[in-house]
Amino acid sequence: MEEVFRHVEPCVINVRPGKNTAIQTEIIEKLSGEHEFVNLDVKDLTNCEMERNTIIGQEFIKIVKADKNIPANLIVRMLNRIIYSGQVSINKFILSNFPEQIDQVTEFERNCSKIAAIIYPTGSGQTVEITNKELSLFNIESLFQKEFRLKTMSEWSFQIFNEKLGNKIEYGIL
After folding, report:
1. Residue 117 · residue 170 · CB < 8 Å
2. DSSP code of 71?
3. CB under 8 Å to 128, separation ≥6 — which residues?
4. Which of 24, 74, 92, 167 has the fewest CB within 10 Å, making it most exposed?
C-alpha cells in the first residue's frame, strides 16, 4: 500500500491574500485547526531553515547576503522535502506566501505537486477584481481562472469550501 501512496499526489491549495485578509486568516486557521491541513508559510519556513543552518538554509543565507531573491527551484526543493516527508497521514497542505509569480507556479507544479485550487478571499460578492488592466501582464489569478482552478469565497464555510474544491477522488484502486 505504501507504494500506491507514493504515487498519489497530496491536496495542495494556495490561499491568496485577496481583498479580505481577515477571511484569508480565518480560512487558513479553520482548515489547519479543524480539517487537518498543514499550513506551509514559505516565509516562516525559509527563516526556520536559515536559523537551523540546514543545507538548504545555508544556500538561502548565501543568496540573501548577495542581496538577491531566493529562486523558486530552491523553495520548491524545500517544500518537496516537507510535502513528501513519508508521513502518509499528512497529505493536505495550504501554501501561504508562495507562489507569487507564474514561473513559481510552473516550477512548483513541475517539480513538486499540482495546486488543486487557489482560494481568493473577496470583500463581498464572488468576483475577482483584476486591478491591473495591462493585458500583457499575466497573473496567477488569471491563469487559474482560465483553468477553472480559481475559487472565490466571501465568507468561511467548510461546505462551500468542499463544493468549490470539489473534494473528489481523481483516482481509484480496484
Report:
1. no
2. P
3. 18, 120, 122, 141, 145, 150, 152
4. 167
